[in-house]
Amino acid sequence: MNVIPKISPHLWFDKEAREAAEFYCSLFPYSRIIAVTRVPDTPSGDTDVVEFELAGQYFQAISAGPHFRFTEAISFVVRCDTQDEIDYYWQALSAVPEAEQCGWLKDRFGLSWQIVPAAMIEMMRSGDSAGIARVTQAFLKMKKFDLAALTAAYRGV
Questions:
Q1: Does 145 lie in the same domain as 78?
Q2: What's the whole-model pTM score?
Q3: How many whole angstroms separate alpha carbon 98 and alpha carbon 104?
Q4: Of 30, 44, 98, 134, which is most buried, counting CB atoms within 10 Å of its CB?
Q5: Domain encompassing residue 115
Q6: What angle do CA 115, 101, 59 make, to 5 degrees?
Q7: Does 2 score more than 90 pLDDT?
Q8: Residues 119, 125, 126, CA angle at the centre, nearest 5°?
Q9: What is the CATH number of the domain that holds 59?
Q10: 54 Cβ neighbours under 8 A, 6+ residues apart
Q11: Has residue 1 been placed in a domain?
Q12: Whether 55 and 121 share a structural domain
């Protein structure tokens, strides 16, 4: 039996909850579809409720019609250890080039993601106000983050 956490994200899709969950599970290690439940005769018609895990984080998704859309007000942060990892997730997820800015992208389902170097998070927590200012000025000019450029900016190189 799976342990469902007290609080978890729930994503509303028009028709593609299962497709989205399968796609996301294909990208992230330690991910899987837990269950797909067909709920008949709802106000939106027959709907699918999909339970899945991404990198061990529990999610639910529903295919319940075009009543709601994703906005940038909610996004998922993917912490990356290397530039190769940043490039991998960026290539796999980015589907709306005009939405790309400061490590943010939008996928083909309209969901926003932030592909962020773990090292940058540590730089921003460092308390080095000059380094933080340099990193901030560097990343404001970027779409996809360049880990080497961010590191150089932080160091003042």
A1: yes
A2: 0.92
A3: 11
A4: 134
A5: 70-157
A6: 40
A7: no
A8: 90
A9: 3.10.180.10
A10: 24, 25, 28, 31
A11: no
A12: no
User: In three state form, how does the secondary structure of the chain look?
Assistant: CCCCCCCCCEEEECCCHHHHHHHHHHHCCCCEEEEEEEEEEECCEEEEEEEEEECCEEEEEEECCCCCCCCCCCEEEEEECCHHHHHHHHHHHCCCHHHCECCEEECCCCCEEEEEEHHHHHHHHCCCHHHHHHHHHHHCCCCCCCHHHHHHHHHCC
Mean pLDDT within 39-68: 93
Q: What tokens does 96 get? A: 């709306």
Instruction: Please tell me whether residues 134 and 157 are part of one structural domain.
Output: yes
Which residues, including other chains, have CB under 8 Å from residue 114's CB and lie 6 or more apart? 75, 76, 77, 78, 103, 104, 105
pLDDT exceeds 70 at position 1: no
Domain count, the chain: 2
pLDDT tens-place string over residues 114-123: 999 999 999 9
Give me the phi and psi of 58, to 5 degrees please: -75, 140
Whole-number pLDDT of residue 135: 98
Instruction: Kindly state whether residues 62 and 132 are assigned to the same domain.
Output: no
Specify if 2 maps to a domain: no
Q: Model confidence over 46-58: pLDDT tens digits?
A: 899 999 999 999 9
Q: How far is residue 33's CA from residue 53's CA, in Å, rounded to a whole number?
A: 7
